[in-house]
Amino acid sequence: MADVRESNPMLLVLSGTFVVLVGLDLIGDYSDGGTGTHLIMEGLLLTMSGVVFGRGIMQLAQARQKIEFLKSDVEKLNEEKEQWKGETHQLLAGLSVKIENQFVYWQLTPAETEVGFLLLKGFSLKEIADIRTTKLKTVQQQSQAIYQKTGLASRSELAAFFLEDLLPPAT
Q1: Which fold has domain 106-171?
Q2: What's 154's DSSP letter?
C-alpha cells in the first residue's frame, strides 16, 4: 500500500485535472443549451471536485509551512548543539589543565602523566602498553608509581579524586 504522503500529490493532480475537465464540459454544455438538471449535476460535480482540490492545496501549503518550521527548529538545535560543544570543549580543556597541574604537584614523570591520563580515560593496562608501544610490565610499574606518589590505591580512586567535585553531593 502506498504511503499517504506519496498519494497526496497524485490525488492533487487528478482532482485538479478533473476540476478543469468538468469545468470545460460544463461551459460547453451551457453554450450548447444543455438541460438544467444536467448542468446542475455537473455543477455539483465541479463543486465537489473543486473542494477536494482546494483541500489538497491547503494541505500542501500547511505541509510546506510545517517543513519550514521544522527546518527552523533543526537550525536552532544545531546552533545550540555547536554552542554546547564549544562550552563543553572549554570545560574539558580546563579540566585537563587542572588534572595536569595536579600531576605536576604529585611530581609525576612525563611518562607517568601520560599513563595517568590514559588510566583516567579508561584504557586497560595492556591497551596503554600498546598505545605507548611499551611493555605491559613497564605500564604496571608506572601505574604503581602513580598510586604511590598520589597516596591513592587504585584507578577508581584516581578517577574519583578528579570527579568528586564535578558530581553533585550524595544525598
Answers
A1: Arc Repressor Mutant, subunit A (1.10.10)
A2: S
Q: 3-class DSSP state for residue 20?
A: helix
Nearest 5°: the CA angle 113, 117, 123 is 130
Enter the C-alpha cell of residue 96. Answer: 585537563
Residue 67 in contact with residue 22, Cβ under 8 Å?
A: no
Whole-model pTM?
A: 0.51
Q: How far apart are CA 71 and CA 23, in angstroms?
A: 39
- 109 — phi, psi (to 5°)? -70, 165
The rounded mean pLDDT for the chain is 86
Q: Are 118 and 128 in contact (CB under 8 A)?
A: yes
Evaluated on CA atoms 161, 165, 166, 168, the torsion sign reads: positive
Report the candidate in 92, 112, 98, 96 with the shortest Cα–Cα distance to residue 152. Answer: 112
Count of all residues that appear for the chain in the document: 171
**pLDDT higher than 70, residue 30:** yes
